[in-house]
Amino acid sequence: MESVSFPPLSRVAVCGGTHGNEMTGVYMVRHLQKEKIDKIGSVSVSTVLTNPRAVEICRRYVETDLNRCFTEALLNSPVTDSSPYELRRAQELNAQIGPKGSKEAMDLIIDIHNTTSNMGLCFIFYSIDWFTLHILKYLQSKMASVEVRAIQLDIPIAEAYSLESVGKHGFAIEAGPQPNGVVRADIHNMVKEAVDHIFSWLQEFNSGNTFEGGEVEAYTLEKSIDYPRNPVTGEITAAIHSQLQDNDFKLLQRGNPIFMSFSGETVKYDGEDLYPFFVNECAYYEKKIAFHLARKIKLTLPPIKVTG
């Protein structure tokens, strides 16, 4: 493939606390702010505690999920004092590090999240973006002891609902397992190492290094599976089976156990071979999602270099 040129990435936002009880990003942003780190080499760094009210009460959100408020429709909708806090906050953030789709938007937004699922270190992104995929490839080469994975959501940017979609380029870092309201040293250090490598990549790119092409694997969302429920009350009637628990990204095949009912019966999977992730994620109980299922694909990357 022919090489592709891009302008330097000179303005980067590191965000945490989009969900107020996901503590790795909260403490990482607070540390960067305490150290007054606003420039790393050629890159200007903005640190943003994105949902301070939710952080203060250590809850995922105050009124509605902030990380579902960044579609163009919601960002451009009229708001009043009675509008949900997170919707108003999304529009403030869009003005601060966007506006979404504009030339003034941040060159790169990194939004740090935690999951209670056993997902290790994951990038989550929307469009096929060469920057994101090259950074992923770079991290995979530098973090040999960690499985660094990518999840691609096939959603048009206008309809993309999460914070990182506000930037010219962006991705969420999803790291776990970590309980809500807790900071684990191993998870924090893993994310810190990843962020350090990201800024090293940015320095190399901005200084004129060419990054050779290659292949990376990614997981594309196919569907979501809900818990078995009582048809009258809507209450769940089963838990994730022990053979599925903590086995995110391990191939799920027809006949594999997925739920154990509270009366002791095993529920088996009856679909095509796919890869589960966000298995038993705490925050997804309210969304009626027991786990997502994905297909694994390979993406071919062109060489990239800085313009000029």
Automatic annotation (TrEMBL):
Cofactor or coenzyme needed: Zn(2+)
CDD domains: M14_ASPA
Molecular function terms, GO-annotated: aminoacylase activity; hydrolase activity, acting on ester bonds; metal ion binding
Residues at which Zn(2+) binds: 19, 22, 113
AstE/AspA barrel-sandwich hybrid domain segment(s): 215-296
NCBIfam families in the record: PRK02259.1
Family: Belongs to the AspA/AstE family. Aspartoacylase subfamily.
Designated name of the protein: N-acyl-aromatic-L-amino acid amidohydrolase
Lineage of source species: Eukaryota, Metazoa, Chordata, Craniata, Vertebrata
